[in-house]
Amino acid sequence: MKYSKATNYALHTMLFLVAHTPDKPMGVQQLAERQNVSPTYLSKILTKLVKAGLIESASGANGGYRLRRKGDEISFLDIIHAIEGTASLFDCTLDHPSECLIQQEMVKAEGQMEDYLRNKMMSELAEKMLACQ
Amino acid sequence: MKYSKATNYALHTMLFLVAHTPDKPMGVQQLAERQNVSPTYLSKILTKLVKAGLIESASGANGGYRLRRKGDEISFLDIIHAIEGTASLFDCTLDHPSECLIQQEMVKAEGQMEDYLRNKMMSELAEKMLACQ
DNA sequence: GAAATTACAGACTTTATTTATCTATAATAG
DNA sequence: CTATTATAGATAAATAAAGTCTGTAATTTC
């Protein structure tokens, strides 16, 4: 079980956008160069963030991607859910007479992780990053 | 990102062993039937639990698998680590000047989940299960 | 309006991981 | 010795992740 690379790209892109809060949109070309990933692949990932309402896109010359919320309103969990989906990490496929107790505990455990990620905002990380430069 | 089915099989097998604490070893045949999984595949999984020191195996007639610790000394995390490994769920592969801040937060988040799983013992679940029968 | 620029969508390929299966070997009880 | 049971290794099949390619739509610039 691993977080996908796509989630890593998404988090880094969002952190960059929050840290630099550009007034005009950033093209996928530049965003991709910074991470050594192909523009077409990154654009797929960013489209998911658009659909999740975290960023907005503009076509045409001088187009690109721009934040749709402030950095203190974007959590790690928002981004992770946009990429990985919101389904539980654990699925008991066995047929039980009643609800699976193991499943219940796994969901609670996952909830602990999600609580942390829900309360960790991009702005906090951006400030920390900028302070260390 | 999903927990593997193997982890599910491992957790269910351990819960069964803890709940029934048989004096003589249980064969993989019977354990596999209960979960509708092939014995050869389950035996692969159980071998991992043996190597992790959670259960012990005996070859030959009347052989099988038996607990090596009490149920209150076996945590969810013990079992999950035995199957999934102990590596972090998140690997930042980008080359950073200094340590990746995103990685650091992800590790902390994961730690929250692990804390819960480390403190959740098989015995607790076994009791709950037996009470509901 | 034409040309350049940029995002979006879908099909496709490649690679990696998970889920198994098969077969042979080793250990043990009776 | 024979039946039973676990272990190891090779292999196959299925699924998921990572990435590419191509064409289309939207927008700006001229």
Automatic annotation (TrEMBL), chains A, B:
State the InterPro entries in the record: ArsR-like_HTH, TR_Rrf2-type_CS, Tscrpt_reg_Rrf2, WH-like_DNA-bd_sf, WH_DNA-bd_sf
**Alphabetized CDD domains for the sequence:** HTH_ARSR
Please tell me whether the keyword Ribosomal protein is annotated for this protein: no
Q: Which UniProt keywords apply?
A: DNA-binding
Q: What is the name listed in the Swiss-Prot or TrEMBL entry for this protein?
A: Rrf2 family protein
Identify the species of origin: Paenibacillus silagei
